[in-house]
Design a protein that fits this description.
Blueprint: H1 7-11, H2 16-21, H3 25-43, H4 93-99, H5 105-136, H6 144-152, H7 155-161, H8 168-179, H9 182-195, H10 202-224, H11 229-236, H12 239-272, H13 276-325, H14 328-337, H15 356-372, H16 375-381, H17 387-418, H18 436-445, H19 451-486, H20 493-520, H21 524-548, H22 554-580, H23 602-609, H24 626-646, H25 677-692
Helix pairs in contact: 3-4, 5-13, 5-19, 6-25, 7-13, 8-13, 8-16, 8-17, 8-19, 9-17, 9-19, 10-15, 10-17, 11-12, 12-13, 12-19, 12-20, 12-21, 13-17, 13-18, 13-19, 13-20, 14-17, 15-21, 15-24, 18-19, 19-20, 21-22, 21-24, 22-24
């Protein structure tokens, strides 16, 4: 990702009102020419040799275009294709980018409405619902059923896990919104456009990882009913592993969240021309507000609204884009001719960017850690009343996630069908590869009032959900794993409320400040990716050994985690530096600019298309899907080997509740009974009532 100013930002210096109401002659002419560009390209295209015809649904009249002549020596900024109209001056890349900004008053209203609804939801759960709940409690003496209800509705429990009374479908939608960030919405379609449908095979891994998490991990965490998953690390291994896991999560999340907020801001900048420093403070402030005052309930219900906005925006682009190019058959035909309908390579070579083994095996292990077994997801599963509800939630979450990523993948196919003969990445019409989806949106939906606003709202909804979820989980981990162990006595309800909200506000302000760093230092983006990879690998190993290898001790796991972290850090940092310096270049599928009807720099296009060469592969070319799997493998192997030095756990002292049910057969026989979760809660309430009385 590049953080240099794009053509839109350079060409628009007026405020938002001027962007909406600008009616100068220059822009009017540019828009008129743009309409001619879009109508001529959408209705008919030509790419057979120098002159050919392609049927479309809107017109049967063929048009002709002449191919561009490339030379290895620098050439002036020009193209040899004929003009759209006799005597009409063709638009430059910069003018066309500016003219595509069709963000009107209705679009702004749609975007503002989305933010307003999120703020209202936070206000409701932070003030109105909380006040109603207090009025329903008949007594506050701490005795009897009322006292039990009040304790179960304590500040931390209500703020972090919604009192464990959340519903399945809203939580499933919240999980989808949390794990599909703006980067995923924009990056998935771009991945398909550049490399083909190889990446779409991760849809298979989503089902596999969901089944594994359902069977192996959910029974353990739902039975323990812990607020922070790193409390499990202390129960299983000791305080050292708990502190390590907490620090890895905090650092990784704090580096990732500003990037997740920055990427949609780039889209908003390209679509509207509004500066990044204008929109990010507004969005971040609103998100911090409703997360701070409303807790998990506000986060979940705003995620529900944002999920519908995301689904609606993606579906609108896919449906309208398919209709514009002539239907599903044309989309598939053009992608097949362009080599986009491909599969991962069948090879054992781990340096191949996407092989079938890396996608299925590596992708499954990556999705287990990133989407199913971490603080963010487990915290939401524990907001449900029982294990049965958690299983249903996992099923709904997996289905919805597969559907949304399928739509994102199809949007990549639509992108290639639209730009099959005029690649905007090579011509720099898209200043960065991640701006391709927003460029497609402005082309397909720009003339329909409200739909560009819906798309931008969808991208920002993904960012808001990721940001709010991260802030809520950070408040949970910092309070439960960092602050409480340092205090000599338990916090009161008032102190807990203060710490939780103060952490959200401070972290939100830090994310806002780090957005400026992301904008100025492009290296921060790959650094965030590397940080996520090097933290998820060791954590995957810690989780897996915790529930599946009961004889491994905490000291062994600590050594394995450190070794895994150092090895992954070295590989990831070297790989990211290689990509930034152009030393690591992966093979790309061919593109064309033969059908472009605007001026661009021929030399730049020639270098991008004809002089690009993949680099020779080495260990630093390791597929990104292998990072998490490699980290987990190194952590596990080193920990097991260290067991011969530090010794093994005494299985007679091992609590069976800390081990996954399928591995409890290896524990010594103990007299314990399986208890239904609802019965367990009833027993706990009875014990608490007896103690209180």
């Amino acid at each position: 990702m590049s953080t240099t100013a794009d053509p839109v930002a350079q060409g628009v210096n007026s405020p938002v009102v001027d962007v909406v109401a600008k009616t100068t002659t220059t822009v009017a002419n540019a828009i008129a020419k743009t309409v001619a560009v879009i109508s001529s390209t959408v209705s008919t295209s030509s790419t057979t040799g120098a002159t050919s015809t392609i049927p479309t649904s809107s017109s049967s009249t063929p048009t002709t275009s002449t191919t561009f002549a490339y030379t290895p020596t620098p050439t002036p900024i020009q193209s040899t294709s004929p003009s759209l109209e006799d005597g009409a001056e063709k638009l430059s890349v910069k003018d066309l980018s500016q003219a595509l900004q069709h963000f009107g008053i209705v679009d702004y209203l749609v975007f503002i409405a989305m933010l307003a609804v999120c703020a209202v939801i936070g206000f409701y759960f932070g003030f109105i619902e909380k006040k109603q709940k207090k009025q329903k409690l008949p007594g506050k003496d701490g005795g009897g059923a009322a006292g039990v209800e009040e304790r179960r509705g304590s500040e931390a429990l209500d703020y972090l896990v919604g009192g464990r009374q959340m519903k399945v479908f809203p939580v499933a939608l919240s999980l989808v919104a949390s794990f599909v960030s703006g980067i995923s919405l924009l990056g998935t379609s771009t991945e398909i456009y550049v490399y083909g449908t190889q990446y779409a095979f991760i849809l298979v891994t989503l089902a596999i990882s969901g089944a594994i998490s359902w069977y192996i991990f959910l029974p353990v965490f739902c039975n323990l009913q812990l607020t922070s998953t790193y409390e499990y690390f202390q129960l299983r291994y000791g305080a050292g592993i708990r502190n390590l896991g907490s620090v890895l999560f905090i650092v990784g999340t704090m580096v990732w969240l500003p990037v997740a907020l920055y990427v949609p801001a780039i889209t908003y900048n390209q679509v509207t021309g509004t500066g990044i420093h204008v929109i990010t403070p507004i969005v971040c402030t609103i998100c911090t507000f409703y997360t701070c005052v409303g807790g998990l309930k506000a986060v979940v219900w705003t995620d529900v609204i944002q999920s519908f906005v995301m689904f609606g925006s993606i579906l609108a682009v896919c449906i309208k884009g398919t209709f514009d190019v002539g239907g599903l058959g044309v989309v598939l035909q053009r992608n097949e001719e362009g080599g986009r309908l491909n599969t991962p390579e069948w090879t054992w070579d781990p340096t191949v960017r996407l092989s079938m083994l890396s996608v299925i095996l590596g992708g499954t292990l990556h999705k287990i850690q990133s989407s199913d077994v971490n603080q963010v997801s487990i915290q939401r599963f524990l907001s449900l009343p029982s294990y049965e509800h958690a299983k249903r939630c996992m099923l709904v979450f997996t289905v919805l996630l597969i559907f949304l990523l399928s739509c994102c993948s199809y949007m990549g196919l639509v992108s290639y069908a639209v730009y099959h003969d005029c690649d905007p990445i090579s011509t720099k019409l898209a200043a960065a590869v991640d701006q391709l989806p927003s460029l497609l949106m402005m082309r397909t939906l720009g003339s329909l009032p409200g739909l560009p606003g819906l798309f931008v709202s969808g991208v920002f909804s993904a960012a808001l959900s990721s940001l709010s979820t991260g802030l809520n989980s950070l408040a949970c981990v910092i309070t439960q794993d960092i602050v409480r162990p340092l205090l000599k006595k338990p916090m009161t309800e008032r102190q807990t409320a203060f710490w939780l909200r103060a952490i959200v506000v401070v972290c939100g302000l830090c994310c806002l400040g780090m957005v400026n760093v992301v904008e100025k230092l492009g290296q921060v983006v790959p650094l965030a990716t590397s940080t996520a990879a090097v933290s998820m690998g060791p954590l995957l190993g810690i989780y897996c050994m915790g529930v599946g290898l009961p004889w491994v001790k905490g000291k062994s796991v600590l050594l394995g985690s450190v070794v895994s972290f150092l090895v992954l850090s070295w590989i990831c940092i070297k790989a990211q530096l290689g990509q930034m310096h152009g030393e690591i270049r992966y093979p790309k599928l061919p593109v064309s600019v033969d059908g472009c009807d605007y001026d661009f720099d021929n030399q730049t296009v020639h270098e991008a298309i004809h002089e690009y060469r993949p680099s020779e592969r080495n260990i630093y070319h390791l597929s990104f899907f292998w990072y998490t799997a490699l980290g987990g493998f190194i952590c596990t192997v080193v920990s097991v080997l260290a067991g011969f030095v530090f010794g093994w756990e005494d299985l007679n002292k091992m609590d069976p509740a800390l081990i996954t049910p399928c591995m409890r057969r290896f524990l010594p026989n103990k007299n314990y009974e399986a208890v239904n979760m609802q019965d367990l809660f009833k027993r706990k309430d009875e014990i608490e009532s007896q103690k209180a009385s």
